[in-house]
């Protein structure tokens, strides 16, 4: 659980860093991938010039990495976190399960997101 919170904090912090860099006037995208303690994450930034327009993340969370052995165990841990995103303007979040891992997809529209509400989620600084 702590690894998941740290991972998401890293994602949000990277948005801030990434938004300070870049040049050009056309819309472009850049994808970053990592494997942290059994959790695979791919983050894609869509940007124009030095402004990040959208951040999308695809996270594959192995049940074992959160101490779960079944979908039900994983849901007990992940669903409360997932629910926190449901009413935040500019954020779309979807969580699905297989037999061995959960797949979370999060898209943040930087022009519409309520940053204050997003920061209020535990684990995001």
UniProtKB/TrEMBL annotation:
Residues 1-21 form the signal peptide. Coiled coil: none annotated. It comes from the Bacteria. Pfam families: DUF1307. Keywords: Signal. InterPro entries: DUF1307, YehR-like_sf. This is YehR. It comes from Escherichia coli DORA_A_5_14_21.
């Amino acid at each position: 659980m702590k690894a998941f919170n740290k991972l998401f904090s890293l994602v949000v912090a990277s948005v801030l860093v990434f938004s300070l860099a870049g040049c050009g006037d056309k819309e472009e995208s850049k994808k970053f991938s990592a494997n942290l303690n059994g959790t695979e994450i791919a983050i894609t930034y869509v940007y124009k010039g030095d402004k990040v327009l959208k951040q999308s993340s695809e996270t594959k969370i192995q049940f074992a990495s959160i101490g779960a052995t079944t979908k039900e165990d994983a849901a007990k841990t992940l669903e409360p976190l997932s629910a926190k995103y449901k009413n935040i303007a500019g954020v779309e979040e979807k969580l699905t399960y297989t037999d061995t891992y959960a797949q979370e997809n999060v898209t943040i529209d930087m022009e519409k997101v309520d940053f204050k509400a997003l920061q209020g989620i535990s684990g995001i600084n």
